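Schema walk-through. Below, the input block comes first and the output block second. Nothing else is stored per chain. Lengths vary across the set, and this one has 504 residues.
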Amino acid sequence: MTRVDVSSIIRSAFKKRRTDDPNGPHPVEVFPPYLRQSVAALGPLLLTIVVGMTLGYSAVLLPQLQDPSNTPQSIRITKEEASWVASLAVIPMAVGTLIGGFFIQKYGRKRTQVITCVPYFLGWILMHFAMNLEMLLTGRFLTGLSSGVLGPATVVYVGETSDPKYRGVLLGGIPLCVSIGLLGSHLLGTFLTWQTAALVISVFPLVSWLLMVFTPESPAWLAQKGLTKNAQNSFFWLRGFSDEAKHELEQILARHKETQQQQQQRESETGLKRWFKDVSAPEFWKPVLILLVFFITSQWAGVNAVSFYSVSFMKNTLGDALNEYLATFIIDCVRLIGSVVACILLKKIGRRQLALMGGVLTFLPLFILSAFIYFTRELYIQTSTPALAAVPITCLLTYTFFVTTGFVTLPWNLMGELLPMSKKSLGSGVASFVAYISMFSVVKTMPAMVESLGTDGTFAIYGSMTLFGTVFVYMFLPETRGKTLHEIEEYFKSDKDNVLDVRL
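--- output ---
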């Protein structure tokens, strides 16, 4: 019996054949390239929604675990255990990024995501059936590990399969989907028990798996593996046959040939010496350094700490002036709107402009909120009215909108653009690892910081870190909008006096 390749049949639905070409049959697109690139990004972006749900699930989980009426007797938790339930998903995220960096190089960008759907599904199912804290923590660990693996895989895959004209929007869809996941998990927790919410979320990895089965692998990865014909087919499926697309494909294949020649010349070198040359190359260490500082400062802007403890945090910040669940819902909606605006702005303005705007309008409301809480602490405790709550809620809304629009969104976006094609696996793994370690440090320390420094001191620290990050971006971040990945790599490789000149 002849084997039917369903994947090939579905891919062929996006093409038709033309026989009037003097050079022979030539594939012609039925659907425009941006639509096919969107289809390729759909499965990974749906998985990214689950990443957001993983991050936001603690805000659903903790209040119910601490409520005796909603929790099995075997899963009552202390305040210290609650901080571990919240932050445990972040620890394996950091480890997962290193695994993801290895997997995307060995097994491919798309295949890594397909494989990750399995532990993702199992983690949520395990939490649904959890009858003790150990089962719950194991489920959190699996979902966190899967989220970490997806960090480099999703960014690199979307970055390598999209046209420079659409890359900003599609990469901007990653933080947008995280925001959708945060809002979705909080909504599920409002109306459902934490067990039922976990069951609903477990469906998403299955749907993502089905969507990704029928899309092509990254052309850049296929070229690196010497699968030139497959790389060409994948590239044309995604990008079409325009002269611009053909030129970029030639650059990818030429870059692969150049890399192969370099590797052959260095065959006599030891593994350690070869590795040192790779990481000391300017096209690698310069963008990696930019990403590391940007990730650390953007995470220490504090937005994920607010998300993890959103309900209790709003209660402490607003008192009785506004229902904390309503305030959390409003903040989630603002974050979602900010992510949508970020996608639009990434198409309209440069990355550098967006980062600077986001940074300035993030640290200013943080400092204002810190000063307001410090100078009105006693008055606020005695007269917690909606009128008095207008100042902190306005600052929180402004902060949430702009930290999402510019400051948290961009490092993930830039990871798909700045890193050289031949070292994306290593660079994305290291950058994602640092991002999740920074996230863990913020989430784990926030309760202790609020207790020892107060809410005002905590916001002051977050604002100071954002200010530092904004200055760093102003000094060192180049503009990448509208540039091909090859052009960006050549820029960092150049021997200019100021290799981090903002003019790219």
